[in-house]
Write a structure and sequence with these properties.
The structure is a single chain. This protein has helices at 7-18, 33-46, 60-71, and strands spanning 24-26, 48-53, 74-79, 82-86. The protein has one domain: YhbY-like (Translation Initiation Factor IF3, 2-Layer Sandwich), CATH 3.30.110.60. The protein is an alpha+beta fold and 102 residues long. It is globular and about 35 Å long. Helix 2 (33-46) links the parallel strand 1 (24-26) and strand 2 (48-53).
């Protein structure tokens, strides 16, 4: 479970998201397992990801929080056909270290 964000953090992420172009697009396959993995990978690299609804525009109100839940991220905002997700990178202390090579 990730920590809830305070209002100052949400404002900061909204401001940063204004400068981003949509990185991913929800297309014909919707929230497929492959798309969810892609969003998860993008969050690992970028923390803040902007996603555009190309298809399923009429279901975006339901799909946006569902995608946030499935990726373990915060839904920062949903405006028009665009949503922004945020998930903090794991800190160095909590990251799982690979076993040492023998």
């Amino acid at each position: 479970m990730i920590e809830p964000l305070n209002n100052a953090q949400i404002r900061k992420f909204k401001a940063a998201a204004q400068l981003l172009e949509p990185m991913l697009k929800v297309g014909k396959s919707g929230l497929s397992e492959g798309f969810i993995r892609t969003v998860d990978d993008a969050l690992k690299l970028h923390e803040l990801v902007k996603i555009k609804f190309v298809d399923f525009k009429d279901q975006k109100k339901e799909l946006a929080p569902e995608l946030a839940e499935k990726t373990g991220s915060h839904l920062i905002m949903r405006v028009g056909n665009v949503m922004v997700l945020h998930r903090p990178r794991p800190s160095a202390e909590t990251a799982v270290e690979p076993p040492p090579a023998l």
